[in-house]
Amino acid sequence: MAVENDYDLFAEGYTAVNETSLLNAYYTRPAIVNLAGDVTGRRILDAGCGSGPVSKALRDKGAIVAGFDRSTKMVELARQRLGDDTDLRVADISQPLPYPDGAFDDCVAALVLHYLEDWTAPLAELRRVLKPGGRLIVAVNHPIMLPFLDRKANYFATTKWTDEYDFNGQKATLTYWHRPLHAMTDAFTAAGFRTAVISEPPPAPEAHELFPDEMAKFPSGAFLSFVFFVLEAA
């Protein structure tokens, strides 16, 4: 039986493309780092760490990072990036996580939750492994995306949809779950989080020079692709 969103099948291609892509390298990662602020000495769990670029960016800022991903190949690539002394594990965010209660000051879930129909158990686990007052920094598909791509889509329904990709010659079909903004914030509240920040940031300034054709489509200098949250464990 095929596994949805099986990154083992295209881990190398995905990593290669997104090392320098607009959406990942010059939009998502800098936004996460900016929202995290001063992380010196903070223990941070990178949930769904992929090949580790967010973990490395946070470690470079002084954080003590750990990470997990469902994809064995992604974790192997993360180990190559971060070294054997970083706590990296194969684990599934939809299952109980292999960390004790209150182990982390912050958690990051960058482009992970939108693969899941039900956020209840994953958010509960992320809340469990956070210290009281700890932060969960989330990036997910902006809820405007599906109605933009499919004008017949019901914004207010939790809806499954797919998109096709070519990651450096490796073909991939990714399956997402759209949910309206209020459903996201309701899920955060139900899991014991307070929503401190909702952010729709512009890309990094250098994006205009590096991607002139793409950025020329956006005269305001900003675009909507993902929405970012900073949540505080109540």
Automatic annotation (TrEMBL):
It comes from Lentzea roselyniae. It holds the Pfam family Methyltransf_11. Keywords: Methyltransferase, Transferase. The keyword Transferase applies. InterPro entries: Methyltransf_11, SAM-dependent_MTases_sf. It comes from the Bacteria. Residues 45-138 form the Methyltransferase type domain. One of its GO terms (biological process) is methylation. This is Class I SAM-dependent methyltransferase. One of its GO terms (molecular function) is methyltransferase activity.
